[in-house]
């Protein structure tokens, strides 16, 4: 069980601002939130040590880089106790970008990004189906992504 984090309003403001624009400097963010850049730096270090902030990522348009197929795969496991070993094996497949343990019809739900359908077929048939513990899969191909965003951690004022 996770202990209470004891985050205050400033922590949430920093998190929200950085999710909106991770390129903002600590000095500029400090000015916006009426604190020093040093305070922002200290708070970010605390948030990183607590594991709330896990780093920063570059957001890219995968379609512009030639990755034209996004698929979601529902995975049925032979036994739910095999989740960890299957998740570890899935992590080794570079085209798998997200893995969730789920309730409902599937044991796991996976997002896969590929350049084309032949690559997706290879991932499904040559890689996924060879993982010990996967009983069967069901694949859905995304036709379009309408939006993708972070959660809002602050109430809108």
What does this structure look like?
The protein is an alpha+beta fold and 157 residues long. It folds into 2 domains: 42 residues, Arc Repressor Mutant, subunit A (Orthogonal Bundle), CATH 1.10.10; 73 residues, Lrp/AsnC effector binding domain/regulation of amino acid metabolism (RAM) domain (Alpha-Beta Plaits, 2-Layer Sandwich), CATH 3.30.70.920. Helix content is 34%, strand content 19%. Strands 2-3-1-4 form a 4-stranded antiparallel β-sheet. The two termini are 32 Å apart.
List strands and helices in order, with pairings.
Layout: H1 9-20, H2 26-33, H3 37-50, E1 69-77, H4 83-91, E2 96-101, E3 108-114, H5 117-127, E4 134-141
Antiparallel strand pairs: 1-3, 1-4, 2-3
Radius of gyration in whole Å, from Cα? 20 Å
CATH class descriptor name of the largest domain: Alpha Beta
What would the principal axes of the Cα set say about the shape?
A: elongated
Strand count, sense and barrel status of the largest sheet are:
4 strands, antiparallel
Report the β-strand fraction as a percent range: 15-25%
| CATH superfamily (homologous) name of the largest domain | Lrp/AsnC effector binding domain/regulation of amino acid metabolism (RAM) domain
Termini, distance in Å?
Answer: 32 Å
Query: Which architecture name of the largest domain does CATH use?
Result: 2-Layer Sandwich
Strand order of the largest sheet: 2-3-1-4
